[in-house]
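#structure-requests
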Amino acid sequence: MFNKRWLLLGIGIGIFSVLMVFAFQGLDASRVAQAEMKPIIIGDDNDFTGPSSAAAPQQVAAMDLALHQFKGEVAGRPVKFIHEDSAMDETQSVDKAKKLVERDGASILVGPLHQPSTIAVHAYLQTSGIPHITMMMPQSMFDKRDSNLFCIHGTSLFDGYIMGKYAAEVLHFKTATVIHDDMVDGEQFTQGAMDAFVAGGGKIIQRQRTPINTMDYAPYLSNMKKADVVFFWFIPPNAMNFINHYADYGLKMPLVMAGIECLGDPMLNQLKDKVVGMYAGVSNYQDVEGPGVKKWLDEWKALYGADKKISMPGYVEPCNYYIEALVALEGLKATHGDTSPKKLCDAMRALKLETPWGKFSFNDTGLGIGNTYVTKVVNDGGHYKLKVLKAIEQVLKAEPAEVMGKAPKM
């Protein structure tokens, strides 16, 4: 009798234990399922206010278009973009990056737009190794393999390099005067143009740096030496101001924007004939002709056509932000939703993408490899836009080492 009671008790305890194991396994499975359904956060540290904010709504729309193409999820997990305003301020950019990572749990961070802010944010992200996707960065940032930095549009030296090379080798200009905002972006863009121009046999006869709060360019224009070409770059409102003053002064030297095309279609159509004939380089732009770009624009129309608040893309930034979002989403797809920083970085670095602007990939330092274009502003039946003059295919988006430093320090 005694042994039977203990036997029954033992059986009961065994059954209870098995049930508890299954219960805990079910609880664990539930927790795993909940974790898998928790949204993957991609943080966007961007200029929603300030002098470079005109394209911000389209940048958001471009990222949303990429997410729409993924049906809002990757590997069964929803993906969410969280946008914060960096306001072209270094301190605020870092504060917003910390908020996105530490409070919102961002697994990937995009932006900011301007290089001093981007550099500061990247310094913060280096400890965690979280993938950092940017439009552009100084070339000196790409000296390490297998880092967490990814550059879509190219280094700032590269932007200028493409235009300086074209000015010397195709347009056969021999002398250049240079003018730009006295800031990192302007300095780097125009330095790349100067290096390539000198390497191609040209000569830089003058360089003028203007304070970023300059309103009247008359003193600089009256001091501008006569040359075959003017290399320039300013933030958008300053570029508008400079071109207006340049035309009012009656100067006729060809203008070459030695850096990322910062005006976009809206500003080109305000400047009208004052800007016709200006040369500029772009990596991804809505005016590039081809079936891939047309299909992308058709998708944009289908998604935003009924919403008058979202116009057609008219700047280089939304086109590049679309690719930034695509890189993030395709990277997550390659890891099957695994957001471990190293796995994500490795997956993103190995991507071979087909974009509206052709094939795109990275080298082992995170620099983009893809197509870039030399363009010229034309009047197309009353609409002012960029017309592609030359396509440079599958180029590493950096100034070549043999050209770097060719221009004299000025």
